[in-house]
Amino acid sequence: MESAMVLSCPVCNAVHALEGRRSEYSKQDLYARVKPHLGRHDLNEPKMAIRKYEIISNATEIVIPSETTQQLPIEEWTKRDDTWLPDGALSSGEGSLPAPEPSVEISSR
Ligand SMILES: [Zn+2]
Fold it and tell me: How confident is the model at residue 81, as a pLDDT?
């Protein structure tokens, strides 16, 4: 069995897998993987920071049979539908979803 980490982009649903355990990666390592991808999206600085944080805090560690690691989108960010992920690799969609952006608008009317 192998450990891997799955990152998913909340903007376009692309996924990216990293071999190894979450504890093997520093936040800086993860930022380095996430940043080039987010650069493709037309985001301003604050949005970029929010998404970056979101992707990293939603990163999921999975344990899979060694022979299936090659099927993971290790090389690059891949569309969710175009790649294989084990069941339960993405925690989003069940339970409590963190709000992607603060939805409370403080507007004085
Ligand atoms: Zn994306």
Answer: 92
